[in-house]
Design brief:
Oligomer: single chain
Largest sheet: 7 strands, mixed
CATH topology of the largest domain: Quinone Oxidoreductase, Chain A, domain 1
Shape: globular
Distance between the termini: 14 Å
Bound molecules: NADP nicotinamide-adenine-dinucleotide phosphate
Strand content: 15-25%
Order of helices and strands: EEEHHEEEEEHHEHEHEHEHEHEHE
Helix content: 25-40%
CATH architecture of the largest domain: Alpha-Beta Complex
Radius of gyration: 20 Å
């Protein structure tokens, strides 16, 4: 019997359970996907921990978990023309991707998977790929920019930092010391986050150079540091601070991206022009353990659930 991970109480990952459900059939205009990989995102933690946050996202109990998936088209509903049975695809199915099967609209957030892209990377790409593409594009970066990217070893940050480098910018990325060597291999100048960030950024800048733009993936402390460094708020984009905490910075996130953006970043990854590291892989039965790892907030790249 096909498996689905769901929770029927709010509070913690302890309520995540693997349940058996009949195979779902696609309705008109829908496709069902045999899921191979499903990446984890922080938004799931907000939903299963916090009833109010869940309500704002339209999550009701019992709820599935997981946003992103990769896999093969299993069945197509009436009138579907964009996909064929057996085709490899990836995309997002909000709160429904950690399962053996998921169902999505053919004109929803689903696209063909480039052949060379692994199911693990493709299955992790939906949310972070869209968010990195939209946030990086929002600042229109060029070779005269020096960009500070926070949480640069995280899912969004690692992609956004590499996109900024591709745009010609010099990139300074915040991460813990354990990730510094790794960031350097990608051409990112690492600095530690936390108290003293401004001073550490000034230390790595060449004489006469200054930070011209910021891609914030962690929250208000990065924005405050950026303002102290003299970066105008219209050159700061945050995906992790809201309301007063955003300090007037722009807040372009994943909603600002299209399927064409997702295809573009997938192709860059397939051609090894970008890297999205897989932090760890867990079988579906160990989904709660996988979220325990995500809850540490010290993940390099993405955690993926696999079904086989
Ligand atoms: N608006 C949107 O569309 C959107 C979409 C996706 C995500 N988000 C939000 O964007 C943020 C990043 O998401 P993500 O999926 O990239 O997260 P993630 O992968 O969980 O980020 C993990 C990274 O955060 C770093 N980190 C931990 N503590 C830090 C600190 N105090 N300062 C700076 N970096 C720190 C870690 O670095 P070390 O391991 O080196 O410590 C780790 O590499 C989250 O707040 C998420 O909710 C928003």
């Amino acid at each position: 019997m096909p498996r689905v991970v769901q929770f029927d109480e709010f509070g913690s990952r302890d309520y995540l359970t693997v349940v058996e459900r009949p195979r779902p059939w696609p309705g008109p205009g829908q496709i069902s996907v045999r899921v191979m990989g499903a990446g984890l995102n922080l938004v799931d933690i907000k939903a299963y921990q916090d009833e109010r946050a869940a309500a704002r996202m339209g999550v009701t109990l019992p709820s599935g978990v997981g946003q992103d998936f990769s896999g093969f088209v299993e069945d197509i509903g009436e009138g579907v023309t964009a996909f064929t049975v057996g085709q490899a695809v990836f995309g997002s199915a909000p709160f429904a991707s950690i399962a053996d099967f998921t169902v999505v609209q053919e004109d929803g957030q689903v696209v063909a998977k480039p052949d060379p892209l692994t199911f693990e990377v493709a299955g992790s790409l939906g949310v972070v790929g869209r968010t990195a593409m939209a946030s990086a594009a929002s600042l229109v970066l060029g070779e005269h920019d020096t960009v500070l990217v926070s949480a640069a070893a995280g899912g969004v940050g690692i992609l956004a930092a590499q996109l900024a480098i591709r745009a010609g910018a010099t990139v300074i990325g915040t991460a813990s010391v354990e990730n510094h060597e790794f960031l350097e291999t990608l051409g990112i100048i690492p600095v530690a986050y936390g108290e003293g960030l401004v001073e550490r950024v000034l230390e790595v800048l060449d004489d006469g150079d200054r930070v011209t733009a910021v891609l914030d993936n962690h929250g208000t402390p990065t924005i405050d540091a950026a303002i102290e460094l003299g970066v105008p708020v219209d050159r700061i984009n945050t995906i992790a601070a809201f309301g007063p905490g955003a300090r007037g910075a722009q807040t372009v996130g994943g909603r600002g991206a299209t399927n064409a953006d997702l295809i573009e970043i997938a192709e860059l990854l397939a051609e090894n022009e970008l890297v999205l590291p897989i932090d760890s892989i867990f079988p579906i039965e160990r989904t709660a353990e996988a979220y325990a790892r995500l809850e540490t907030r010290h993940v390099r790249g993405k955690i993926v659930i696999v079904t086989e």
